[in-house]
């Protein structure tokens, strides 16, 4: 972009350029793989050494090296505002995906993205990735679920959870159907998920609650399974959510504030790390 006055420099190098920019590049790196991504960047730097380059030049090199149409995919992220929420529901072994623009206000936008979806099935050893290129799409995941020959019925139930957006590498929020969310709560309780994914599930559910996309009761059910959490980052988020919910409730339904405060205190006191966190 052209700079006409000095103060326009700050507008060109803002949070959108740096924070959103780094987020979408990390998402792309996760989708195409670290090794290929690094190889593409090396090729890009050599080609444009001692000269100028545009955003499109980087996408062209990445497309050339990977064989993927990176231009069209990344244009949907860099040339329109906002980011999506991906709704996912399960029907038998068919996963139903749908995207829409996420807005904290609760309104629905018209944006549409080409979204690199990553997901795992009951284990980080069972991973699937694909591009969601339309408003909605179904995925047959039958081959990725454990078979009855591999595990007995009880073990199968524990291994049937699904986590979308592995490692929170994608620049989107995830809204799970009730059944999938119930399985995830059990997986968190059993300690099957990584710290990053546990944080992401809580962060997404809270944001969806603020946007009136999910109920407060569903958020409270999720918070309850973090009772034994000991990770500092997750506990910090959990405490922030407690304070924010109480702040809203104090104005909306003041007579319930004390009861909810007792629930939050009970959840937090179960954590072994809480005394250290509060010092």
What is the N-to-C succession of helices and strands? HHHHHEEEEEHEEHHHHHH
Query: How big a fraction of the residues is strand?
Result: 5-15%
CATH class of the largest domain: Mainly Beta
- What shape does the CA trace take? globular
- Strand line-up across the major sheet: 5-2-1-7
Write down the oligomeric state: single chain
Number of strands: 7
Helix content: 40-55%
Biggest β-sheet description: 4 strands, mixed
Which class of secondary structure composition applies to the elements? Answer: alpha+beta
Distance between the termini: 48 Å
CATH architecture annotation name of the largest domain: Sandwich
Tell me the count of domains.
2
Mean residue pLDDT: 88
GO molecular function, one term: peptide binding
Pfam families: ERAP1_C, Peptidase_M1
InterPro entries: ERAP1-like_C_dom, Peptidase_M1_aminopeptidases, Peptidase_M1_dom, Peptidase_M4/M1_CTD_sf
Protein name: Peptidase M1 membrane alanine aminopeptidase domain-containing protein
């Amino acid at each position: 972009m052209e700079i006409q006055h000095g103060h326009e420099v700050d507008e060109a190098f803002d949070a959108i350029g740096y924070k959103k920019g780094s987020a979408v590049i990390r998402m792309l790196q996760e989708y195409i793989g670290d090794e290929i991504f690094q190889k593409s960047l090396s090729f890009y730097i050599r080609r444009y050494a001692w000269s100028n380059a545009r955003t499109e030049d980087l996408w062209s090199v990445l497309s050339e090296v990977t064989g993927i149409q990176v231009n069209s995919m990344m244009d949907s992220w860099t040339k329109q505002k906002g980011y999506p929420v991906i709704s996912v529901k399960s029907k038998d072994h068919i996963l139903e995906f749908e995207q829409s623009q996420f807005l904290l206000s609760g309104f629905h936008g018209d944006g549409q993205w080409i979204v690199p979806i990553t997901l795992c099935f009951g284990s980080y050893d069972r991973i699937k990735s694909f591009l969601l290129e339309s408003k909605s799409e179904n995925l047959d995941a039958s081959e990725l679920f454990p078979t009855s020959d591999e595990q007995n019925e009880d073990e199968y139930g524990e291994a049937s959870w699904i986590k979308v957006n592995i490692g929170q590498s994608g620049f989107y929020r995830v809204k799970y159907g009730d059944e999938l969310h119930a399985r995830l709560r059990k997986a968190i309780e059993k300690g099957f998920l990584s710290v990053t994914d546990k944080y992401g599930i809580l962060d997404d559910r809270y944001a969806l609650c603020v946007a009136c996309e999910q109920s407060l009761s569903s958020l409270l059910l999720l918070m309850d399974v973090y009772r034994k959490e000991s990770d500092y980052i997750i506990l910090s988020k959990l405490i922030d959510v407690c304070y924010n919910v109480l702040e809203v409730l104090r104005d909306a339904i003041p007579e319930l504030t004390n009861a909810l405060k007792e629930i939050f205190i009970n959840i937090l006191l179960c954590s072994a790390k809480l005394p250290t966190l509060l010092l």
